[in-house]
Amino acid sequence: MDQAARRLDAISSHLNTQTCSGNYPKGLLAGEVAIITGSGQGIGRSAAILFAKEGAYVVVTDVDASKSDAVAQEITSQGLSAISIPGDVMDPAFPEKLVEGAVAKFGRLNHIVNNAGFTYDGMLHKTTDKQWDMMLTVHNTAPFRIIRAAAKHLRKQDGANKCIVNISSTSGLHGNIGQANYATAKAGVVGLTKTVAKEWGAFGVRCNTVAFGWIETRLTAAKESGAVMEVDGRKIALGIPTGNRKPGAATAYADIPLQRSGKPDEAAGGILAMCSPFASYISGHTLEVTGGRGI
């Protein structure tokens, strides 16, 4: 077990000790309903499993139905609660189907994690309108539509723990070469979050952003590994090219104080923190989960 794995194990053990006794014997999110988009793999999958372990009823959703169904099955096989509602968040009709499906199954809605997304990189002068529009659609328009679809369920004076978490990135906070479209979209997430926090705070709804740095997912893997995302029949290459790195160049982690990348489970922990009752007075905030990058 490496150092990072040992730390994660220690954190997990601490959480289990705290939530299996004391104030939260059934978990931090016991009985609460959470929709987590893009939860068929990566950070979304880790978040879905973590939320379920903390007592939530989880709605797993992914554009890949087989992955969405598999994660839901993985959760239920452990005696926890989850359903799968697969679909494309960029489809204008899907947000309503997703929200109403969740409420029909579990009777209510507490949390939305707008995690689904991908990159479509290119230098600015070569970026097409299609590349630009797709990033804004998946990272801005889709979360907006899901939140809007949930309005009638969340805008109630019911005293429940309710939180929306929108996922951003260090690219959105600081910009990034080759990601004018992605950086713009992820910056827009922060504005959406703050607006929802101001409009819906009176109904007890908190809204926060979690901005990730270098987390080990298919978006940060070597581009040469061949990972792709297929949208509208178009295959989009994912990852970060490493073939042009010069010998002796600084490591990828040189600007990260913790000197390593993050794990999906650690990223999921940041999302859980924002939804937990311990964040009951945190709203409109951007939590950076970056290992210290960008400070």
UniProtKB/TrEMBL annotation:
<keyword id="KW-0560">Oxidoreductase</keyword>
<keyword id="KW-0521">NADP</keyword>
<feature type="domain" description="Ketoreductase">
    <location>
        <begin position="32"/>
        <end position="203"/>
    </location>
</feature>
<dbReference type="GO" id="GO:0016616">
    <property type="term" value="F:oxidoreductase activity, acting on the CH-OH group of donors, NAD or NADP as acceptor"/>
</dbReference>
<comment type="similarity">
    <text>Belongs to the short-chain dehydrogenases/reductases (SDR) family.</text>
</comment>
<dbReference type="InterPro" id="IPR036291">
    <property type="entry name" value="NAD(P)-bd_dom_sf"/>
</dbReference>
<dbReference type="InterPro" id="IPR002347">
    <property type="entry name" value="SDR_fam"/>
</dbReference>
<dbReference type="InterPro" id="IPR057326">
    <property type="entry name" value="KR_dom"/>
</dbReference>
<dbReference type="Pfam" id="PF00106">
    <property type="entry name" value="adh_short"/>
</dbReference>
<protein>
    <recommendedName>
        <fullName>Ketoreductase domain-containing protein</fullName>
    </recommendedName>
</protein>
<dbReference type="GO" id="GO:0006633">
    <property type="term" value="P:fatty acid biosynthetic process"/>
</dbReference>
<dbReference type="InterPro" id="IPR020904">
    <property type="entry name" value="Sc_DH/Rdtase_CS"/>
</dbReference>
<dbReference type="GO" id="GO:0048038">
    <property type="term" value="F:quinone binding"/>
</dbReference>
